[in-house]
Amino acid sequence: MNDRYENPLCKRYASKEMQEIFSDDRKFSTWRKLWVILAESEKELGLDITDEQLDEMRAHLYDIDYETARRREAEVRHDVMAHIYTYGLACPKARPIIHLGATSCYVGDNTDIILQRDALLRIRKLLLNAIAATADFAEKYKALPTLAYTHFQAAQPTTVGKRATLWLQDLMLDLEQLDFTLGNLKLLGCRGTTGTGASFLSLFGGDHEKVKALEEKVVEKAGFSGAYAVSGQTYTRKVDYFTLSVLSGIAQSAQKFSSDIRLLSHLKEFDEPFEKGQVGSSAMAYKRNPMRSERIASLAKFVIADAMNPAMTAGTQWLERTLDDSANRRISIPEAFLAVDGILTLYINIISGVTVYPKVIEKHWNEELPFFATENILMYCTKKGGDRQALHEAIREHSVAAGKAIKQDGASNDLLDRIAADPIFGLTRQELDELLANSCFTGMAVEQTEDYVREVRQVLEKNKAFLEEKINANINV
Q1: Annotated catalytic residue: which of 151, 231, 245, 266?
Q2: 439 vs 86, 128, 148, CA distance in Å?
Q3: For residue 198, what are the contacts with CB-CB under 8 A and spacing of at least 6?
Q4: What single string gives the DSSP state of each residue in 173-215?
């Protein structure tokens, strides 16, 4: 439909799998499954519910009459009541016992938790695949020397693979947070209108143990380990904040990665994947803009900002509940998941298909080599009996002069020639070249990369089932 707004997260960025999780079909069929679970459990605990009624409800989990539900909601202004009515039309025998003892949040909140769990599992799969691809990249380039940068100024060297371990560690920390949040996710359970269970206590004639048993049955049938110990009508909205904090963390990691790729693209050391017919600029045909990395950065800003929504919602809930959370949550939670789904798909696409240019990296290395080699020269000459303080001052003076010539005159870096010509150092140019050739400027970068990638591989091995299905990382828009 071209005559109305459509959400770009669905149209351009998020996968079909994530869109399905937050679809109406998944939401409302889950409502019906929860109604079946409730009725089954109530029957098992002695309420007058028949197998025929349960069979009828099970037979109509997916054939949802959306038009009837829409018309009914327009009349009653209540989505849950509209769907109870619609389900009752499909299940006339079961109609009297659908939603028995429950409040709207029984289906609404429990479904939200179920969908968050499913969406977190989808994100977990994408995250593990991003980790695996980044580990492969780090291992491949573990020994390729490159300039490191602090303040985006050339600093002591590292390797391309070691730099990638910085991206990798961020993702691993995100995985830890995701697993913690997923492992502690619980249902609302069966709590009634203010969380006291009064309606269910009435149904079971004041039998407290049956009310407890009902919730245990519902939770187990829904595939959870427990419900939150106490609640108002809703589960605490801090849960949503914890979930979106995980997504915000992933967005932060991806934004840092994408920023690094954009900087390296400017240096012409990296190129993200670029299709044969892809256009980089409408005006400048030669350009290869890092548009995928830019898209990650753009979506990441949205997710990081979106994480403020559940924080504000959690802090403004009145007493046992208010409804000022509803509209916000309908938008903020699904959209955060849809955006991170797109972010991680882009991440996998880029790190799996990035082009590295070793010759350009070497060129930049050689341009800065005289500067970062001065520490080695200072130590070498001191060992030969030189005055450390006098040598340091001489290096400072020559470095300033060489740097000035480079910046003001566009000259080549002649710092090594200046040092070789200064008798205070007592070095021939050949001796100086041999010193540099035998110096290990990248420190323990290779070993650190190997050690960390080995550690990551152990985690990936435990999660290999999540890696067996290849993620579609083709980016069409």
Answers
A1: 151
A2: 77, 37, 16
A3: 192
A4: HHHHHHHHHHHT--B--S--SSSS-HHHHHHTTT-HHHHHHHH
Structure tokens at 310: 């559940």
Whether pLDDT at 181 is above 80: yes
Query: For this structure, is 281 an active site residue?
Result: yes
Estimate to the nearest angstrom the gap between the alpha carbon of 155 and the chain centroid.
30
pLDDT per residue as tens digits for the range 32-85 = 999 999 999 999 999 999 999 999 999 999 999 999 999 999 999 999 999 999
Q: Rounded to the nearest 5 degrees, what angle is found at the Cα of 427, between the Cα atoms of 389 and 365?
A: 85
Q: Catalytic site residue 23?
A: no
Residue 280: pLDDT above 70? no
Pairing type for strands 355-356 and 270-271 reads antiparallel
Q: Looking up tokens 């996998």, which residue turns up? A: 348
Please give the structure tokens belonging to residue 348: 């996998």
In whole angstroms, how far apart are CA 389 and each of 379, 381, 382, 386, 393? 11, 11, 9, 9, 6
For residues 381 and 367, is the Cβ–Cβ distance under 8 A? no
For 277, the token pair is: 């017919």
pTM for this one? 0.91
Exactly one of 202, 281, 326, 412 is catalytic; name it.
Answer: 281
Task: Give the DSSP letter string of 80-103.
Answer: HHHHHHHHHHH-TTTGGGTTTT--
Amino acid found at 264: L
